[in-house]
Design goal:
CATH superfamily of the largest domain in chain A: VC0802-like
Largest interface: A-B, 19 and 19 residues
CATH superfamily of the largest domain in chain B: ANL, N-terminal domain
Radius of gyration of chain A: 16 Å
Order of helices and strands of chain A: EHEEHEHEEHEH
Number of domains of chain A: 2
Radius of gyration of chain B: 23 Å
CATH topology of the largest domain in chain A: VC0802-like
CATH class of the largest domain in chain B: Alpha Beta
Structural class of chain A: alpha+beta
Number of strands of chain B: 20
Order of helices and strands of chain B: HHHEEHEHEHEHEHEEEEEEEEEEHEEHEE
CATH architecture of the largest domain in chain A: 2-Layer Sandwich
Shape of chain A: globular
Helix content of chain A: 25-40%
Helix content of chain B: 25-40%
Largest sheet of chain A: 7 strands, antiparallel
CATH class of the largest domain in chain A: Alpha Beta
Shape of chain B: globular
Number of strands of chain A: 7
Largest sheet of chain B: 12 strands, mixed
Number of domains of chain B: 2
Structural class of chain B: alpha/beta
Strand content of chain B: 15-25%
Oligomer: heterodimer
Chain lengths: ~150, ~450
């Protein structure tokens, strides 16, 4: 139920963000969602794409440092308290969140948020035991590109 | 700025000894020092190898038969292998930073400290110091010789010392204002920093009571002298020294400010081609080599300073008979002087090797964006160490930052860069770019 995320190391310089994006564009790869973390000196770009292996090869060929990590996509009710409930469940389960970011599409009345956990399997178990929907890769990609 | 002129005064009549008399004193002292170091393991071995006996010294030219002493030799005999007196005779230790993260220690007997104070008094008086002055010392006090050397020199002259030490520049400005100090002692770049901070607080640094300053501890230029004099409204004097030889007091400028008089009754200076090791002509640039003639605790024969300068033996209008050295124009090794602190690229490399996850690919860039030196270290992130977690990347960055500081003693700006982005060269990698323009020396 985990999905694959690609992370890229970026120096904090003009043009560094557009280089990998151009490489993906010319290979016809669509970025489903992304998040950028930065400090004064460097940044980390995180991407979700449909075919991570192909994207990784394209990016590495373009000279990028790429790392694949497993993350979890969670459906969150799009109303006040929706996210708070999920976070409460995770907190109770003793699950630590490294970072999170959202998909731009909605799934009915639900938003989809990407979570990075140290232990994704434990997180998935905790979420499921509280009937919180974790979306797998195939379903996610279909919804994202619908 | 108060109206002030530097009078030509001489502290010690030894400074004006006729050359012939000086030469014969040097020879006598050289024989003496050779005998006194004969039991120091490094010299004992060298003397046996070269069949050197103190009594066989007939002229100063015999000096060239003596072995050179290098920083590497001092390091090989760490910490105190060059000590020539029983340890109970030592009353002070100092140290300078080295390439290995361990300091090079130097030692002083009571007589050495008296000599050191007297030598500092000589150049301080040559550069205007009078007993009625107050001297603000903003050099570091500690293992570094700058603070203590000047401190005791000022006291020897009978002037008042304000031992402020380095750091906290706004406080330096406040103390300069409140105590109305006449003289500033620090590194030249710190003098400019003090002026800059005063200005940023809306104070005119020229309205301080400062009349002149004695600056040393790092390379500087005539342009910088002009800048310091204009900014602070003072006369700026240059002095030179290194801890291995004694610390500050090896040489200093007189009122003529045309070269630094070397205290030749206590040190023999040579200027050599660093490749052939042969002497260069007068007034030509070469590596300075010093032999200490009177030091007790840790005398050194033909110590290779790695400092590049030229020697001018022409008579000086001030009346001193001693040879004058130019400003130091560079180094024969890759040592960098950052805000007065000696830093070797190999120390940065060692720091990176000690941090797990740091690649040995790095580039050091040195610059002086304002008046203070700044060192930045670009380090390539190895693909296997790259993490999608910012906390982990930040931890790597901070670990490198801390390690560099603990090994070199200075704070560097650490920049993580992508792998394979730093220039690789077939031969020796270019590890250092020094942007501090070498202006007119």
């Amino acid at each position: 139920m985990k999905i694959h995320q690609l992370s890229l190391f970026l120096e904090n310089k003009p043009g560094r963000l557009s280089e990998p994006c151009k490489a993906l564009a010319s290979a016809g790869i669509n970025i489903l969602t992304l998040s950028l973390a930065d400090t004064q000196q460097f940044g980390i770009l995180r991407l979700i794409v449909r075919d991570w292996q192909q994207a990784k090869a394209v990016l590495e060929k373009a000279g990028c440092v790429v790392k694949m990590t497993e993350v979890v996509a969670i459906e969150v009710e799009d109303r006040p308290g929706g996210l708070a409930r999920v976070l409460g469940v995770l907190e109770e389960g003793g699950i630590n969140i490294e970072y999170m970011y959202a998909f731009t599409f909605r799934s009915g009345d639900r938003a989809v948020i990407v979570f990075r956990f140290d232990n994704p399997d434990a997180a998935v178990d905790v979420l499921r035991s509280h009937a919180i929907n974790v979306i797998g890769g195939v379903e996610l990609y279909e919804r994202a590109e619908a | 700025m108060t109206q002030f002129a530097i009078e030509n005064r001489i502290w010690d009549s030894a400074e004006t000894r006729p050359r012939e008399e000086l030469k014969s004193l040097q020879l006598q002292r050289l024989r003496d020092i050779v005998a006194r170091v004969a039991h120091v393991p490094f010299y004992k071995e060298a003397f046996a190898r070269e069949k050197i006996r103190p009594e066989s010294f007939r002229s100063l030219d015999d000096l060239r038969r003596l072995p050179f002493t290098t920083k590497a030799a001092l390091r090989d005999h760490y910490p105190l292998g060059f000590l020539a007196v029983p340890r109970e005779k030592v009353v002070r230790f100092h140290g300078s930073s080295g390439t290995t993260g361990k300091p090079t220690f130097v030692a002083y007997t009571r007589a050495d400290l008296d000599l050191w104070a007297n030598l500092c008094a000589r150049f301080l008086v040559a550069g205007g110091l009078r007993p009625e002055h107050t001297v603000h010392i903003a050099f570091g006090y500690g293992l570094f010789t700058g603070g203590f050397g000047l401190h005791y020199g000022v006291e020897k002259v009978g002037a008042a010392v304000l031992p402020v030490a380095s750091g906290n520049t706004p406080r330096q400005v406040m103390l300069l204002e409140d105590l109305q100090s006449d003289v500033l002692v620090c590194t030249p770049s710190y003098a400019l920093n003090i002026a800059e901070v005063a200005r940023s607080e809306g104070k005119d640094p020229r309205s301080l009571n400062l009349k002149f300053g004695h600056f040393g501890g790092e390379m500087w230029t005539e342009d910088m002298r002009g800048q310091i004099e204009a900014e602070l409204g003072i006369f700026a004097f240059n002095n030179y020294g290194l801890s291995e030889v004694i610390g500050p007091g090896v040489s200093g400028e007189c009122a003529a400010r045309d070269g630094m008089h070397i205290q030749e009754d206590h040190f023999i200076v040579e200027c050599i081609d660093p490749d052939t090791l042969e002497p260069v002509e007068d007034c030509e640039y070469g590596e300075l080599v010093f032999t200490t003639l009177t030091k007790e605790a840790m005398p050194l024969l033909r110590y290779r300073t790695r400092d590049i300068a030229a020697l001018d033996p022409c008579a000086c209008p001030c009346g001193r008979t001693t040879v004058r050295m130019s400003r130091v124009s560079g180094r024969t090794d890759d040592m960098l002087i950052i805000r007065g602190v000696n830093v070797f690229p190999s120390q940065i490399e060692e720091a990176l090797l000690q941090v797990e996850g740091a690649a040995p690919h790095y580039l050091i860039e040195v610059d002086r964006p304002g008046v203070l030196d700044q060192i930045s270290v670009k380090v390539e992130v190895r693909p296997e160490d790259f993490s999608d977690k910012m906390s982990q990347m930040q931890a790597l960055h901070d670990a490198i930052d801390r390690k560099i500081q603990s090994i070199t003693g200075i704070r560097a700006i650490v920049e993580l860069v992508a792998p394979q982005t730093l220039e690789r060269s077939a031969g020796k990698a270019r590890r250092v770019i020094d942007h501090r323009t070498k202006k007119r020396l």
